[in-house]
Amino acid sequence: MILINGRATSEIEVTDRGLQYGDGLFETIAVVSGRAVLYASHLKRLEADCRRLAIPVPEREVLDKEVAHLCQGISRGVLKIIVTRGSGGRGYRSPPQPQPTRILSIHPWPDYPAISSEYGITLRICRTPLGHNPYLAGMKHLSRLEQVLARNEWDDPMIPEGVMLDLQGYVIGGTMSNLFIVQEGNLQTPDLSSCGVAGVMRAFILEQAFALDLKVTVCSLTLLDLKRAEELFICNSLMGLWPVRRFEETEYPLGSVTQCLQRRIYSQLS
Question: Where along the sequence do coiled-coil regions lie (predicted)?
């Protein structure tokens, strides 16, 4: 089901700036037993990023009602929320008083193999780099061409994710995920001040690590750091946390820190 500005329709104006220029934002949210998981955190990011882009923030009460309507009766699914600057004719200049477009849609749960979360996955490196733009860093904006190009680099179903670097060769994350390493029992995750998406699950893991008295460092990470790591895992709002067992030629154990965080996350969100 799709709601566009509250109406059940799949038709959108061809002049919508989200379609024309990627001028907007989106959130991808897990739905379990009719409940949008970490909804408050997703909404907080959406509202903050709307303000960063000077897009009028959707009315909270309206959005809450639409989300509740779409999630009702869904045992397990995916909710996507898109907010664009709305229609504005041709040209980059925004209309003086934009009327945002609000798109909510519900989708089937991805066909993730159970082995991905239970045993772990294999990662590969992507050739496509992420460009630097501190003004957009951290946002989940609609302009995702870098991720599209990176994900189209391979078609091996046994490799569900690839690692993306920035223009200087530092590790940023996956095409659809954030990344953590464990070194000497402590967590490290890439600095996203120049590029990348600051995921809601990433933020949740940082909170849980603090609750577990785990030291966390946000820093620049290299490929050598990944190869030397004791443990490696990726995360997003749908997969939760997936251990990485192999990255290129490096193999990793199913480590105790990864397992502890995984149990903590699932217990908190179930």
Answer: none
What is the pTM assigned to this prediction?
Answer: 0.95
pLDDT tens digits, one per residue of 69-86: 999 999 999 999 999 999
Q: Give 114's contacts (C-beta < 8 A, 6+ positions apart).
A: none
Minimal CA–CA distance to 160: which of 175, 139, 178? 175
Q: How far apart are CA 88 and CA 80, in angstroms?
A: 23
Six-digit token pair at 269? Answer: 């969100």
